[in-house]
Each structure stands twice: as structure tokens, then as C-alpha cells.
Amino acid sequence: MKEFIEAFKALRHAPRALWLIIFAFAFDGMAYFGVLPLMKAFLGQDIGISPAIASVWVSIFTCALTGVMLFVGKPTEGYLGIRKSLILALFLSFGGRVLYSSAPWAGGAALLAVSLVIVALGEGILQPVAYAGVKKYTTEKTSSMGFALLYAGLNFGAMLVGPISAHVRTTFDVPYKAGESTLSGFNAVNWVCVGITALTLVVFAIFMTKKVEAQTVSGVAPEKEAGDRENAKKDAPASGKSPFTDARFLFFIFALLPVRTLFAHQWLTMPEYVLRSYPPEIADRMEWLVGSINPLIIFLGVPTLTALTRRFHVLTMMIVGSLVSAAATFLLVPGPHTGMLIAYFVIFSVGEALWSSRFLEYAADLAPEGRVAQYMGVANLPWFVAKMTTGFYSGVMLEHFVPKDGPQSTGTLWLIYGVIAMSSPLALIAASKWLRSGMDTKDSAEMKTAA
């Protein structure tokens, strides 16, 4: 408990810029996760794209976003800085969402494609620059909690939008299905998210001034901070310059790929699974289950668990967290049951809370000064692969095992996905000695350098 309290106290003197970055990340996340779970259904109903192909569209969009994170995030941060980069990202996300929401009435699939490219640019810039911002405005002592709060803030936004989405969708679906309106429930949620993005952009642009951006971490002199960064650059070993030359790091991040497919299923499979397999009283509140339980637990659990487990080795947290998340999937094997569905979301989310922010911290700590955005992009490369591969088979699997009409075999679907996810903790356990030795060697080298 003492460590928990001290970790939060350490952020008392954090620069205002840190809190504005977390604000922008959280409320943009609110808009992003308001749109994403409904995207596949929106493409099918409002744009007229078949369910199997709609999954591919969603997959390509999320992959494009990760690609932007990998190749565009760092150059944007380098040329524009934290403040201008985030304003640009929010502006692109706003404009793209306006076009996305207009596609059913003008432009159809063509305008849809343009809008998704623009949103992918905005979101792909925002995320790695926000990570770099947390790195810039925290110290070694506050870094863990800074990343934990960033991740918790993202989930706070996603948690808030779930009930709003369910209410808006079901309210606007009544006149839409009666033929009295051209605005569907899905697209009404899209327009609400346009408004959220606009508000986030305005607030951030007003309060994140150049003066606020220039404020340094309390207690650290600017010249000392600059000197430490310069020494870090000089002392960094050549092998640490590029993550692509570190075999342990690459194995570490790619070992998590199978369990990451479960995260992709949260928007590619889970929304329509609930809508198709559960009675109306549950389906009408789908967003509460799919969009709010997980973010609520992450919002409360990530800062708490990060503070309480700071002394545990990052690899230990990866193994335990991924094992818990993967094992939760087997709760869905017996078939549709509301209690088991809720238990799945709770247990899956606890597993995510155990390792998610620590993974971000680990990747950022490996990065040389000025290349945090690039390293965060590389760390997300397996996430890119997971989203790409999952989108190309999830639609077909859903139509085969959970068709909208006809007999369903939901247990088989989740059994397959659970087995795939379990390979992540098993791979980490099998290679734990090799991975741990590499991490411990790095820590020893850093201690010698500091001395």
C-alpha cells in the first residue's frame, strides 16, 4: 500500500502538459472506441458491404493505423513537436470522421475509403506522439504511473462511450427501421463521436499553449535534463539503436501476437456475436458489455496493479497477464450465457490490466532519446500483424459458426480462438530463462553507466 500511495504522490508535480496529453488521448479514445465496435455492422447495413468483406475493410483500416504509427509518428513528432503533432492528429481525426459519417448519403464506399485513410493518419500520429509526450514529461520515478494513467485514460474514454452508444443506437434505430428517418442507430453514434472529437480538439488547442509545452518536469533543470539525454545518446550501445537487431526484444513482442488476436476479436467478432446469439434485452445493451466492462476494469485496475506490481519483473507480468486473458476465453465454450459472458469480460480485462501498461513502459525504456515514437511503433508491429490476419478470417468464421439465421456453434468458435491465444503465455514460459537473462544484462549495463 505504501508503494501504491508513493507512486501516485510522485505525479503531483507533473507538468500540466502531461495531463493535457492524457486528456486528449482519453477523449479521442472515447470517439475511436465509439465508432470501432460498430464499424463492421455499419459497413454492412449502411454502406451495403457483405459481412465477410466488411471484416477485411475493418482489418485494413486498423492495419493502416498501425502502419502510420510505425512510419509517420516519429517524423511528425520530430518536425512539429508534441503540441502541433497532437493538434494535427486531432484535426485529421475530426475531418475523417465527418466524411465517414457522411458516406451513407454521399459517396458510398469511395468516400468511406478516403475517410478511413484520413482517420488512420490522425489516430496513427496521435498514439505514438502521446507515448513520446508521456516519456518527455515524466521522470524515471513517475514513468510507470505516467504510462499507466495514459492507458487508463484511454479506457476511461472507451468506458464512457459504451452506455452513450447503446442509448443513441437503440433510440435512433426505432425511426430508422420504421422508414421514418435515414439516420441509422449506427450512424447516429458516428455523429456523436464527431462531436466528441471536435470538443477534444478545441479544448486541447486552447490549453496546450507553447508555454505549457515548454514546461519541464518539476525538479529537473533544463540544462541537466539536456545533458543527461546527450550522455544517454553517447553511452547507448550500438545494438540498442535499432529494435530490429535485438532478437530477444523481437521474440518478446511477437510472442504476444496470438493473445493479441483476442483484442482484435473485441470489435471484429464480439459485437455481432452478442447481437446474434443473445436475446434482445442483452443485445440492445451490447455496448455496455463489449465497450464498457473492459475499459472500466482497465481504468481502475491498470494504475492500481501497476503501482502494486512495480517490483515484479516485466516478463513475469507478461506471462501471468497473458495467461489470465487467454484462459478467460474458455468460459465462452459452453455457449451463450449472460453470466459467463460477463465473467469472461471481467477476467479477460484483469489479465490485460496486469501486463498492458508494463509492455508500453518496457518498449519506451528501450528507446534512445528522440526515438521513442519509432520504438513504440515497432513494439506495435505484432499488433499490426494480429489485426491484419484476424480481419481476414474472423468474418468467415463468424458467418460459419455464428450465422445470423440458422443453427449456431458458438462454443467451437471460442474454443479455437482460446487455443490460439494460449500459445502466447506458453511461448513466454518456454523462453523465460533466455528472455530474462537478456533483460537483466541490460539493467546491469544501465546501472554501470549511471555509476
Architecture overview:
The chain has 451 residues and is an all-alpha fold. The chain has 20 helices and no strands. Helix 5 crosses helix 17 (372-379) and helix 11 packs across helix 18. The radius of gyration is 22 Å and the shape is globular.
Helix-residue proportion? over 70%
SS strand fraction: under 5%
Number of strands: 0
Count of individual domains: 1
Shape: globular
SSE arrangement, N to C: HHHHHHHHHHHHHHHHHHHH
Largest sheet: none
- The CATH superfamily name is MFS general substrate transporter like domains
Extract low-pLDDT stretches: 218-240, 444-451
SS-derived structural category? mainly alpha
Computed Rg:
22 Å
Second CATH tier, the architecture: Up-down Bundle
Number of alpha- plus pi-helical segments:
20
Q: Round the mean pLDDT to the nearest integer and report it.
A: 83
The third-level CATH topology is Growth Hormone, Chain: A
Return the CATH class: Mainly Alpha
- N- to C-terminal separation? 30 Å
